[in-house]
Amino acid sequence: MPPIKTRDLEKKLDRVFSEYIRLSAADDNGIVQCVTCGSFHHWREVHCGHFIPRGRKPTRFNEMNAHVQCVRCNTFRHGEHDIYRLYLVNKYGKEAVEKLEHLALIGGSDDAYSLQMKLDEYRQKVRQLKNEKL
User: Fold this and answer.
1) Angle at 46 between CA 38 and CA 132, to 5 degrees
2) What is the pLDDT of residues 7-33, one digit of tens each?
3) Are 45 and 56 in contact (CB under 8 A)?
4) What H or E segment, with its residue span, contains residue 15?
5) Quick check: helix, strand or coil at residue 14?
6) 24 FRET partner, CA 20 to 30 A, in 16, 38, 64, 112?
7) What is the DSSP string of 73-111?
8) Alpha-carbon gap, residue 40 to 110, rounded angstroms
9) Which residue in 48, 11, 10 sits closest to 26, CA to CA?
């Protein structure tokens, strides 16, 4: 069996990480609130919006960088970056957000082993949340 490519692992991890972010924000009825416009939706109907775009590998799977966003804000309003940043500053503090922004500038990406470890971790977290909430 050939080794799994890093890109394939990233795609799998993207799906599981997104599910975790959305599900972890859901209440007992599966409802989440968009961090940029405040609208309410079922967790399956929203996106895992990234403050710093996913193309920046060092912050791609950072939970501080990923939160629930409605489709309108994340896609049609291009992430509402300024509002998203204000949300993060209010939640984590200005210094933490600046560290996150600095981390995004550092080069490099995860190797296949660390991606597989993260994939296993987030699969477990999703299973646990589904047992608790669904």
Assistant:
1) 95
2) 999 999 999 999 999 999 999 999 999
3) no
4) helix 6-24
5) helix
6) 112
7) IIIITTT-HHHHHHHHHHHH-HHHHHHHHHHHHS-----
8) 34
9) 48
Q: What is the DSSP string of 40-52?
A: EEEGGGSEEEESS
Kindly report the backbone phi and psi dihedral angles of residue 68, in degrees, each rounded to the nearest multiple of 5, phi listed first.
Answer: -70, 130
> Is the model's pLDDT at 45 over the cut of 70?
yes
Q: Output the pLDDT for position 108.
A: 83
Rounded (10°) CA dihedral 18, 10, 96, 77: -60
Encoding tokens for residue 59? 């912050």
51 backbone dihedrals φ, ψ, rounded to 5° = -65, -55
Looking up tokens 């972010």 gives 21
Q: Residue length, the chain?
A: 134
CA 107 to chain centre: 19
Cα distances from 49 to residues 2, 84, 114, 117, in angstroms, run 33, 9, 22, 22
Distance CA 68, CA 41 (A): 10
